[in-house]
Amino acid sequence: QFQQVQSMMYDLMEWRSQLLSGTLPKDELKELKQKVTSKIDYGNKILELDLIVRDENGNILDPDKTSVISLFHAHEEATNKITERIKEEMSKDQPDYASYSRMSSSPTHSLYVFVRNFVCRIGEDAELFMSLYDPQKSTIISENYLVRWGSRGFPKEIDMLNNLKVVFTDLGNKDLSRDKIYLVCQIVRVGRMDLKDSNSKKYTQGLRRPFGVAGNCL
């Protein structure tokens, strides 16, 4: 039981770091909060502690503002969910708890990226969006890092030359265990509708058009 609770605490520590980072999109933040409350409720159950009833957003129900019937239904629903969770855990093979002996290492990791140059003949300004991508699940697993690149081959903010750096934070052991992670750069052209337009009276300035994409396996 100690090893089981220990693995839960490692998960909660990792998820807490992600919540405090303030970098998660709203939908992922809501999903992670639900995972945290579900893990806490499950841990309370196996430790024979009191069951906490919550609303659909994971917030603790206030008994002074909630009717007795609503509290009963919430308690019944929470009990059923936890019971199903326990059955699922018992049906699985016992995990290798040696993988959780991470006391000497940090539960979260970071990736440091230094953008030295961008070489691509566009002829106009561009926006570069860099992010981490999981090809197996076809999903982006980080926030975008934006670099505005000028048409002359330099950053729009010239003082950022040789200083374009970003740290992708709060990468957990789950991220490191992915089969592959790509650093993806999406290129967006900012300017005319068509690069062939030459008469300034015939085209509109400032249009954002997809131009290209590049990727590198980490």
TrEMBL record:
Ranges for domain Dedicator of cytokinesis N-terminal come to 1-202
Give any Pfam family that matches: DOCK_N
Which molecular-function annotations from GO does this UniProt entry contain?
Answer: guanyl-nucleotide exchange factor activity; small GTPase binding
Please cite one Gene Ontology biological process associated with this protein.
Answer: cell migration
Output a single Gene Ontology CC term carried by this record.
plasma membrane
Entry protein name: DOCK2 protein
Q: Which organism is it from?
A: Piaya cayana
Organism lineage: Eukaryota, Metazoa, Chordata, Craniata, Vertebrata
